[in-house]
Amino acid sequence: MISNKRPSAAIGRAARRGRFVVNVALATWRLRTEVKRPRNLSENVDLAFGFSVGAVRIAPAQVRSEIETLLSLLKAEPPQNVLEIGTARGGTLFLLSRVARADARLASIDLPGGDFGGGYGRVWVPLLKALPRERQTLKLIRADSHDPCTLEEARRWFNHPLDFLLVDGDHQFEGVRRDFFMYGSMVRPGGVIAIHDIVPGREDRVGGVPKLWELLKSDYETRELVHDWDQGGFGIGIVKVPAEGLKAASSFADPYPAA
User: Fold this and answer.
1) Tens-place pLDDT, residues 111-124
2) Helices 173-184 and 209-217, packing angle to 10 deg
3) Residue 12 near residue 38, CB atoms below 8 Å
4) Is residue 5 predicted with pLDDT exceeding 90?
């Protein structure tokens, strides 16, 4: 007797894939309409967390009160040049575009197949490109943020210092340290760098981010946006870049390296 389990499973996967592609297309069409409607900050956060078409969602992997506070701070002095490391579903990118200047230049770096939620497929690209406001420009960089070629691509795209950088990609200590200092070198004095997942939690959720944050706090002007220090992850750390710029990355070594 010949089993037909494998063909059935393959047909099921193909059907699910087909539905997902259709839903992404529908979500992209809906977003192009939704993002044109005037909304205040709270309403934009509602849209980001609540938008869905089938299994397609853009909800940011954020605690609402934390990201909302960050957005309020940025809105007070809207950034012109904004770089995000770690795109995920695009919800945070959407929200950043809403508090950036109307003609802001945006970029988002994401590693296909990366850990910690990274790696959107090409089918997702039109949806992400529908997120910015009409006069804003967006570059999606699907590459390893640690590659010097990626850094150079980001430098060419902006051609001016960054006003705001969000580090939310590789969460391993060395990975987040490299992202902070590589791309932090692009941020102007007085500009802002935000790091996500500063609250201690499971290794697979926060990696070495809390360890790096503890080191940064002792050397920079910082602020912590944390709903609950017992929430096992999340939390946003804010660093204001000093007039002299960032210190050498070598000054911040892992205090508890793996054996």
Assistant:
1) 876 665 556 788 88
2) 50
3) no
4) no
Rg for the chain, CA atoms, rounded: 19
SS3 content of the chain, % helix, strand, coil (to 5): 40, 20, 40
For 18, 51, 123, the CA distances from 61, given in Å and listed in that order, are 26, 14, 20
Q: What does the alpha-carbon distance between residue 185 and residue 70 come to, in Å, rounded to a whole number?
A: 21
- Residue identified by tokens 């508890």 is 256
- Domain map of the chain by residue range? 5-251
Element containing residue 197 per DSSP (H, E): none
Element (H, E) at 108: strand 105-110
- What whole-number distance in Å separates Cα of residue 34 and Cα of residue 94? 12
Q: Which of 84, 69, 71 is nearest to 227 (CA)?
A: 69
**Cα–Cα dist 258/156, whole Å:** 36
Q: 187: which strand partners?
A: 162
The CATH class of the 5-251 domain is: alpha beta
Quick check: pTM over 0.85?
yes
| pLDDT exceeds 80 at position 173 | yes
Residues pairing with 223 in the sheet: 238
- Decide: 146 and 170 in contact? Cβ < 8 Å: yes
Match 């590693």 to its residue by tokens: 111
Rounded to whole angstroms, the Cα distance separating 143 from 133 reads: 24
The encoded tokens of residue 166 equal: 């969000």
Q: Which residue has the tokens 């060419």?
A: 156
- Contact (Cβ atoms closer than 8 angstroms) between residue 194 and residue 213: no
What does the pLDDT average to over 75-89?
96
Whether 204 contacts 161, CB under 8 Å: no
